[in-house]
Automatic annotation (TrEMBL):
Keywords: Amino-acid biosynthesis, FAD, Flavoprotein, Methionine biosynthesis, NAD, Oxidoreductase. The keyword Amino-acid biosynthesis applies. Its EC number is 1.5.1.54. It comes from freshwater metagenome. This is methylenetetrahydrofolate reductase (NADH). InterPro entries: FAD-linked_oxidoreductase-like, Mehydrof_redctse-like, MTHF_reductase_bac. One of its GO terms (molecular function) is methylenetetrahydrofolate reductase (NADH) activity. Its cofactor is FAD. Belongs to the methylenetetrahydrofolate reductase family. One of its GO terms (cellular component) is cytosol. The keyword Nucleotide-binding does not apply. One of its GO terms (biological process) is methionine biosynthetic process. Pathway: Amino-acid biosynthesis; L-methionine biosynthesis via de novo pathway; One-carbon metabolism; tetrahydrofolate interconversion.
Length: 287
């Protein structure tokens, strides 16, 4: 199975992100979504991990299922906060033995309730990157925050820490954002720090107004006033989805024109918006 670092050396990658389903119904939805997206021939799909291990078994099961039952290359997300070294080793041993070659090494967030905080041998994603690299087996991705990570004192500090982390990884995937200039600035600032590893922009098509406001708040992403105005112009869910697809299509065009090494779509386990953007960009015919 392919390593994402190698795929990126060959050319652009187009990829999809899923979260592990909680219920039988959600599992069926994800199965259908993967079946609908497989014909688009994604370079890889990634599966998120509940910080502190809350989806440990579910993430592992989805990743292992994709590896065994489809022709798609999977990547497993893994967060290190709230894990001991022994737990992380068990998880990485499993992926190596299951022939899964790609790990997204993340810090994760501490639970809001102090009672839920578990012992941790790690504080930052860079420590997990070192652990994963120790296997000499995996391609390693890390998270990048174009508008700065919410816990960082300022953007320059965040960029230095990202540059230090990315030097030891194969590629980064960004938090979602709505203006290509954020991505271009991120790549330029990393380059100025001597880091030219591929940075895949993360694309979140807006499909629901309340949801995008909540997600933007949590991730430190600005909702630009032109987008808020467009979304506030309607309460019709179909119109909102249409605006979301339209905005994401333009963003993808701008990013590809700016030289992005690929696009990573946050699908929220649904295929329709991603398929529409693919069609608008004529991506199916490009690879
Ligand atoms: P880090 O790289 O550890 O950074 C966290 C903060 O610490 C930043 O402010 C950074 O500047 C700072 N920092 C880093 N190193 C140092 C240092 N040496 N000294 C002082 N400060 C330092 N979360 C999940 O729970 N599960 C997922 O599956 C998941 N997938 C994600 C996928 C993508 C593409 C992205 C962008 C985010 C994802 N997240 C996920 C969210 C992520 O876990 C949070 O944003 C988390 O708060 C930070 O993760 P990180 O890997 O960037 O952490």
């Amino acid at each position: 199975m392919a390593k994402i670092g190698d795929l990126l050396r060959i050319g652009r990658t187009f990829s999809f992100e899923f979260f592990p389903p909680r219920t039988d119904d959600a599992q069926l939805t994800l199965g259908r979504t993967i079946a609908e997206l497989e014909p688009l021939r994604p370079a890889f799909v990634s599966v998120t991990y509940g910080a502190g291990g809350s989806t440990r078994a579910r993430t592992r099961d989805v990743v292992t299922w994709v590896r065994r039952e489809t022709n798609i290359t999977p990547m497993a997300h893994l967060t290190c906060q709230g894990h001991t070294r022994t737990e992380i080793t068990e998880i990485l041993d499993h992926y190596r033995d299951a022939d899964v070659h790609n790990i997204m090494a993340l810090g994760g967030d501490l639970p809001s309730d102090p009672a839920d905080i578990r012992p941790s041998d790690y504080t930052y994603a860079s420590e997990l990157v070192a652990e994963v690299n120790g296997y000499g087996y995996f391609s390693v991705g890390v998270a990048a925050h174009p508008e700065g990570h919410p816990r960082s004192p300022d953007r320059a500090t965040d960029r230095r820490r990202l540059a230090d982390k990315l030097r030891h990884a194969d590629f980064a995937i960004t938090q979602f954002f709505f203006e290509a200039s954020h991505y271009v600035r991120l790549v330029d600032e990393l380059m100025a720090l001597g880091v030219d590893k591929p940075v895949l922009p993360g694309i979140m098509p807006v499909t629901n107004k309340g949801q995008i406001v909540r997600m933007a708040e949590m991730s430190g992403t600005a909702l630009p006033s032109w987008l808020v105005e467009r979304l506030n112009g309607t309460d019709d869910p179909h119109e909102i989805r249409k605006i979301g697809v339209d905005v994401a299509t333009t963003l993808c065009e701008d990013l590809l024109a700016a030289g992005a090494p690929g696009l990573h779509f946050y699908t929220l386990n649904r295929s329709t918006a991603t398929r529409e953007i693919y069609a608008n960009l004529n991506l199916s015919s490009m690879h």
